[in-house]
Amino acid sequence: MKQxxxxxxxxxxxxxxxxxxxxxxxxxxxxxxTWMTFGQIPAYISTGEFKNQGFIDKTIRMxxxxxxxxxxxxxxxxxxxxxxxxxxxxxxxxxxxxxxxxHRVFSTPIFIWYPSGIIIHKRNQARFGPEGSILSLKALLxxxxxxxxxxxxxxxxxxxxxxxxxxxxxxxxYSMKSSTMQxxxxxxxxxxxxxxxxxxxxxxxxxxxxxxxNEFLFYNVxxxxxxxxxxxxxxxCEQGRRIIDRVNAxxxxxxxxxxxxxxxRQWVVMSEQHEALYRETILLRKKHPKVIHxxxx
Length: 297
Fold this sequence. Notes:
By secondary structure, the protein is α/β, with parallel strands linked by helices.
């Protein structure tokens, strides 16, 4: 009898051990997507007290919370050369303009962005003109006493790119490699360059983040007067098309669009023209000749 009880006890222990190693059910693993980020403030903020509070930082989080809860986001900061390599591969998305249309799918636009212009240090204002002037980049490039700082291999807007190509190799164009897709404005402070190409938000936000006292000025240029559509771009593969379908469904909701715009307004003072064009082209989905897709390459 005692021998029988001993065998029963051993059997129970064995059964319990087996049960411990039987999975309760199939585990649901999240799929993953890599978001390319570009280091441009205030779209992305990667350090300091406002880390991850850029308006595209917030937009990507909102997209995952409301449309991609089952997809794990990963982030990879790229410069322009790295972007060109990754943009033709599967498994990645970004928020920006249309590129590599044979390799990517693009969502319905979710906001529009300013035309580019030039940024200077205020000590040089007398060499450029009154604040609010619209300058000619062509004339500036012909002035050999002024040095323009640009990012190596960056894709500027078409007319600006044409001018830079025409002046390639000129002594007054300083081309630099960068881990991000914008010139650090400290280059203007250090007197290595006299002006650079950027957007009106950059000097305002850099001054705020770095506690600078109103050191920079932005000027519009004649050669770039168009606003650009911005949307989500993903690799043209099964996963990328599925993500774009969900993003498009999310942004049929006006509140989702307004949430993105609220994140932008936290950093950017939008002009009356920008506000009007945003309402017409994004909220009402009407075309306007001043708002275009910047396609690249």
